[in-house]
Design goal:
Distance between the termini: 8 Å
Mean pLDDT: 93
Helix content: 25-40%
Largest sheet: 6 strands, mixed
Shape: elongated
Radius of gyration: 25 Å
Number of helices: 13
Number of strands: 21
Amino acid sequence: MGSSPPLRAVVGDKFSLSESQASRTAQQQVAHLAEQRRVHEAFAWFRSHAHQLEDLQLQVTSIAAPPWGEAARSDWLKERFTELSLSDVHQDEIGNVFGVRPGSDPNAPYIALSAHLDTVFPAGTDIDVRRDGDKLYGPGISDNSSGIIALVAIAGAMHGAVIPNRAPVLFIGDVGEEGEGDLRGMRHIFQQPKWSANIASLVVLDGAGTDTIIAEGLGSRRYEVTIRGHGGHSWSDFGVANPIVGLARVIDRFTRTQVPAAPKTTYNIGIVSGGTSVNSIPESATMRVDTRSASVEELDKLERALHEAVDQTIPELTGRKREEFLTAEVRVIGNRPAADLPTDSQLLKMIRAVDAQLNLTAKIQRASTDANIPLSLGREAIAIGAGGTGGGAHTIHEWYDPAGRDLGLKRILLLTLALAGVAEE
């Protein structure tokens, strides 16, 4: 057979394509890969291990992984990476877990696959995992146990089929993707020179499906607004400035803010809390605000609008006496950068070629994922599904149907090999 796709080479702190890779179209490279015997053996591995993958998915879902509580699940994945004979299997100081399938070219940068370990469910959530007919059920069974199992499946198939990849493939289970985790695991990884200088492309495996390519990072900023006062009794201290009233007026002002339809920009007040009893003037009231946009400028405008709503409200309710004083604090609790993958990027060409090879039609979409971090640094990254279908995400009734999982795994494998390259058979 003809030569397979060569590797990316490191040039200073940038990544470039070799001349031989540029001489072939992405479609030709992927078609050549799909013909190789070892690749077909890997496809067969997905089918023969389908039931085992389902068992592992139920197993990992049963391990709680609340925000800042992913340690047990990180340990579980570390054991799987070791069983699959990956090299340099280890965890970093915040709980990210790594394993490497070495390549034949010691100078090539990594092609990375990642899946987030955490779920949205707080500590103490009742985790009931089960099979019911053809479906698997449990909190986080799809988001993101399906992505975690895809990591295991790709590593397992490459090991089982003895695929001689040229560039090393880095497998990552990362922490802190959901909610107020604020992508902390992926941020940490790209702050480490060992990884940031040596990852050529990152493919994030997040949730089910094969019909989307997340190549546009949705920007998100989140805030906690707290208003504090003296507090008191509802009868004897009537007239004391009330933080809940203040917060209500801030909400009223802020939600009058106009946002554009294009670029789509949104805001949401998702949590409001404060007070101790119906007959007590509270000492504090707090809300949490989520803002989202593809535009950094629009996010800046919303941030200014929130501060203006607070700054205008507090003087209206604050008197001269100590008990009439209100104070306010606006604290940033999340900041996910907005960034897009260039339409002419090699990674986008490759996933399009893979989809054409597998007769898939996927849409480019915008979302907030772990890919936001490398995209914001000018690196190539996308997020794709792990195959199968899912529903009820972020609820305790979440489900996953593994029918069609092997198509998603073929997609991930072909993309990985097209980026890493495969030596001659």
